[in-house]
Amino acid sequence: MRILMTIHHYKILDAGAPGATLLLARALNEQGHEVSVFGFEDFKAANAGPLTQMTFPWFLAAQPRRIMMYDVIDASTGDGHVLYPLFRTLFRKQRPLLVTRCHGLEHLAHVRRRMDAKLGRDRLTWKYPIYHGGLRLHEVARSLRSADLSLFLNEDDRSYATQRLHVSRTKTKVLPAGIDGAFLEHAVDMKSARNSGPHIVWMGSWIPRKAPDIASTVITAFLRRDPTRQAHFLGTGVPDDRILAMLPSEVHAQVSITSTYVRADLPSIFRPLDILLFPSRSEGFPVTVLEAMACGLTPILSAIPAVSSFAQHGVNALLAPLDAADSFESFVETLMANHALRLRIATSAMATARSLSWATVANRTAQTYAEVSEERTAAIRRDRTSNAQFRHMC
Questions:
Q1: Most buried one in 76, 150, 151, 329, CB count within 10 A?
Q2: Which fold, 181-354?
Q3: What is the mean pLDDT of the chain?
């Protein structure tokens, strides 16, 4: 199949949605498909601001000849809000399959941001309701409703789209993300690697949605109990001072901060670590959790819908109620006191993560494309037959 994937970002492999798009495209290419990825570089965008995001879908729609070369258009949410209704009107039969891919539903993220702002954990500017909290949500909904197929990373996003945004459930599917082959090839000696602790790691941008307030509370308690313990903060994207300001000065010497990292370096970064602390309040599909699991870390996660498709409490993870710092603290100390339990959960977590390769996801994606394309072709044939019979009767 000839596939065009679009992403309203710069094509950066180590970023979230862009990285997932590029890795899926690579896996599809390796399986014999012809995949191109269209991003802000192709748009020649000077920056990734709201104006660029607003005009990107229009630039995409202005290239119908290029679009018609493909069998499938797989566009991230909002990218197809102009193109898809246009193609459904002008090229009802002879056109590519139109797919909208959700990397985390913006409407649920909007609900969470509003809640965080109300609780004083986030600050929304006066501009927020104009685009990201307004027009952008309409673009996303329109791109979902006008697609032949909408793909979601978790059931919660799918349910919201079908119940609140009036997206036809028959035109939706849930497909997970995957992890890079480098993590599958990374050898982990569980027995020796996990005896090197105690080290805990928190991963994510230092934003309210990732619950840095919960993380700082739990990690402070963890470090105060034993001066030999170490805590690591990865991918914060902010100056170190902001993280240290949320931790008491007496534990600063036990803290290591890496604001940015290259994904290929993660297996070596993870090697001396023991526990992944992930109290996130909202996610589309937390690939970083799977990457940590694949490298032998024991995950303690928020019990949010995004992890329910792969995490089972007491089996391959420990799941704490949302924002329950005391539960996270208790689980951390349970794992510190019970090495056998930590090893058992980590071993199961690694097996789970390694079953979700991008090759597997790409195969399921291609099968889904083919199934929906066949259904669409059959529907067009039925329409032609019905129309012919009607004309004959007249």
A1: 150
A2: Rossmann fold (3.40.50)
A3: 88
Q: Would you say the CATH fold of 181-354 matches that of 2-178+359-393? A: yes
pLDDT of residue 347: 92
Amino acid at 235: G
Rounded to two decimals, what is the model's pTM?
0.82
Q: In this structure, how many other beta carbons lie within 10 angstroms of the beta carbon of residue 163?
A: 10
Quick count: other Cβ atoms within 10 Å of Cβ 65? 6
CATH tag for 2-178+359-393 (out of 3.40.50.1400, 3.40.50.2000, 3.40.50.1820, 1.10.3720.10): 3.40.50.2000
What mean pLDDT is predicted for residues 116-142? Answer: 89
Q: How far apart are CA 64 and CA 50, in angstroms?
A: 24
Using pLDDT thresholds of 50, 70 and 90, give the confidence band for residue 379: confident
Question: What is the secondary structure of 174-227 as a DSSP string?
Answer: E----B-HHHHH----HHHHGGG--EEEEES-SSGGG-HHHHHHHHHHHHHT-T
- In this structure, what token pair is assigned to residue 306? 């995004």
